[in-house]
């Protein structure tokens, strides 16, 4: 991250931010550079871009220059590799400015982690250096039109034909599908395997590929600017060595591990939206007066602010706990699931309460709080619905014998 690495004077300011105590000086500087980018470049243009549903080409290019797409990619493939707490804080800052920007690098990071953890050295050398600069963007394709969160029973299939896999099926709600040059595709390569998840693999599908087509951009309540698309595979052909790690049948477990990072990223998006909503509400409550005093002094408004600040702080601590657990090497599906569950529900509540604090202006598109309210639900249903998160959490609580 060349721009951030030269920003060490900003570290003293970053050190005062929550959670900075656990970051190195370089990581603190990186978070501060992203925070400055959000305040200086994103916030002045986000309302116009979001309402027009315009792809933020210039902002994405600036994110590439800042090295944001390579934060999870260490040497020798990338230049700067940060801890997961730092990555979470960067994600939070991006989401504080515009949640769509954090979404633009979410799946990309999961694919990078999959390659680092499970890929062959040839696969790492082929993709990671370009992914680190953002020259190659990546996404993952999991969800199917009829499957939702039930990934073990997906129907997209791949059959080996000589030295190629022939893939047929469809995926939906694939973020960045149109602009990604690499898709980590979850598909069935062994039709009769039992249990069902044992026959699933991850294929690294480059775009363009014969038989691969991108469908329409799906209309969305929020999460504007960045596309979420249908993906169709009609006798799509990829090389036999496109299997992640060269091992068929391991894809389900590989993706579940990758989703630990994905759910931490979604939790960080949620805390970013929550922070933006809280900050706007707190500022407005001090500026707006009624009955001769600032509205925060009215107990009903003050109580809202107290609850919002408390829930944001709790969500952020769960997020950082999950990030630290991931870096420790321990299994963290429980911690990531808890962070994603609590942070997303908190973001939804905080965004709604921000509208309450703003009153009628909260319903106006001239204020940002209505955008937070439209963006927040994605984190409740994305990366595995919160109903699925509760199942994961309950299973792990039983398996671990409690907390």
3D structure, described in words:
The chain is an alpha+beta fold and 403 residues long. It is built from 13 helices and nine strands. Helix 9 (251-287) runs parallel beside helix 11 (333-358) and helix 9 runs antiparallel to helix 12 (369-381). The radius of gyration is 21 Å and the shape is globular. It starts with a helix and ends with a helix.
List the uncertain runs: 2-16
Average pLDDT works out at 93
CA-based shape:
globular
Distance between the termini: 38 Å
Going by helix content, strand content and strand pairing, the class is alpha+beta
Order of secondary-structure elements: HHHHHHHHEEEEEEEHEEHHHH
Count all strands and give the number.
Answer: 9
Strand order across the largest sheet: 2-3-7-6
Largest sheet: 4 strands, antiparallel
Helix content: 40-55%
Strand content: 5-15%
Per DSSP, the total helix count is 13
Rg (CA only): 21 Å
Task: Indicate the topology.
Blueprint: H1 2-5, H2 11-14, H3 25-42, H4 46-52, H5 57-66, H6 84-97, H7 99-118, H8 121-133, E1 138-141, E2 157-161, E3 164-175, E4 182-188, E5 200-206, E6 212-217, E7 228-239, H9 251-287, E8 289-290, E9 293-294, H10 299-327, H11 333-358, H12 369-381, H13 386-399
Parallel strand pairs: 1-4
Antiparallel strand pairs: 2-3, 3-7, 4-5, 6-7, 8-9
Helix pairs in contact: 3-6, 6-7, 6-9, 7-8, 7-9, 9-10, 9-11, 9-12, 10-11, 11-12, 11-13
Q: What labels describe this entry?
A:
403 residues; single chain; four-stranded antiparallel sheet; 9 strands; 13 helices; 52% helix
